[in-house]
Design a protein that fits this description.
The chain has about 300 residues and is α+β, with helices and mostly antiparallel strands. The chain has helices at about 15-30, 40-45, 70-80, 110-115, 190, 275-285; strands at about 5-10, 35, 50-55, 65-70, 90-95, 105, 120-125, 130-135, 135-145, 145-150, 160-165, 170-175, 175-180, 205-210, 220-225, 230, 240-245, 250, 255-260, 265-270. The strands form 4 sheets. Strands 3-2-1-4-5-6 form a 6-stranded parallel sheet, with helices on both faces. Strands 9-8-19-16-11-12 form a 6-stranded antiparallel sheet, with no helix packed on it.
């Protein structure tokens, strides 16, 4: 049976085109096919390679991995593309921080060899399911790997909302918005909103208000099976919008209810190394560890 990987990325960037050509060349020596969107493969400059074939049918179906060339934004787009096929994502970072990526641009050849050797582990990341309803009728549904955020749609006015936890009201906030995040998203928007960094293995959600005018407006850490709802005040003066991973949005009418819960369908990430999350934080945020006198090797 022919081995196949899906290629996703931003072919408009020169380093992405170079990485794609290098990856395809390395995999072709082992007769591993590369597939993807036909126009994207053409833009990468790899469509003429005999081991490259345009994707037919559901993206990611029949593929061992989806190799993503880009930063976290590109990986979020790839997650959206292959989530239904449950294809693991292997990110090669061409962006800035690249928290979701597993390899850097200089390691394309090594990553290709690990693909050839099937030397990777799969890590499942929990996702969120988001329903927007009006008068108990669902009018919009989506999902998120990092976060769902309810934000004001205009700069000049704040929004007024009520936070509900497991069917009970918690607090009313006049604010710029609120972020409901997974542990995966704790280093993304929720981090900018003042939320804590949560290790990926922790089964929890975060609720982080954005510039709230309230005495009780601290970030909350909740069990992953909790149901969170945000209700917009029907008399509020500000317009609001809900965003999922900064990619999918819906303009919220007055009185809208946004229900957020754990999704049954995770996103799968391919990991090449079992390095501790602490090491990833240190590397990605360039944290100083000067003065540390612990063991130099992870046991």
């Amino acid at each position: 049976m022919t081995r196949r990987v899906l290629l996703i990325g931003h072919p408009g960037r020169e380093q992405a085109r170079q990485a794609a050509c290098e990856l395809v060349s390395e995999l072709a020596t082992q007769q591993i096919e590369v597939t993807g969107d036909e126009e994207e493969l053409r833009a990468f400059g790899v469509l003429d390679n005999p081991n490259v074939v345009p994707q037919i049918g559901t993206p990611g179906e029949g593929c061992e991995l989806a190799v993503v060339l880009g930063g976290d934004g590109t990986i979020l787009r790839a997650a959206e593309t292959v989530r239904d096929a449950c294809t693991p994502l292997l990110g090669i970072n061409l962006g800035h921080v690249g928290f979701l990526a597993e390899a850097e641009r200089d390691n394309v050849r090594e990553a290709a060899q690990r693909i050839v050797d099937r030397s990777w582990a799969v890590e499942e990341r929990e996702t969120l399911e988001i329903d927007v309803s009006i008068d108990d009728e669902i009018v919009w549904n989506s999902w998120a790997l990092n976060e769902a955020s309810v934000e004001k749609a205009s700069r000049e006015r704040m929004i007024e909302l009520v936070v509900e936890i497991d069917g009970r009201p918690l607090s009313t906030w006049g604010c710029d918005g609120v972020v409901i995040s997974t542990p995966t998203g704790s280093t993304a928007y929720a981090f900018s909103a003042g939320g804590p960094v949560v290790w990926p293995g922790v089964r929890a959600f975060l609720v982080c208000p954005i510039s709230a005018h309230a005495l009780f407006a601290r970030p909350l850490v909740l069990s992953h099976d909790v149901r969170v709802a945000i209700e917009l005040s029907p008399s509020g003066q500000g317009r609001a919008v809900v965003w999922c991973d900064g990619r999918r949005s819906f303009d919220l009418p007055e009185g809208a209810r946004i229900a957020v819960r754990r999704s049954e369908l995770p996103v799968r990430l391919a990991r090449l190394a079992q390095s501790p999350f602490t090491d990833r934080l240190v590397a990605k945020f360039d944290l100083s560890v000067t003065g540390w006198r612990g063991a130099r090797e992870v046991r």
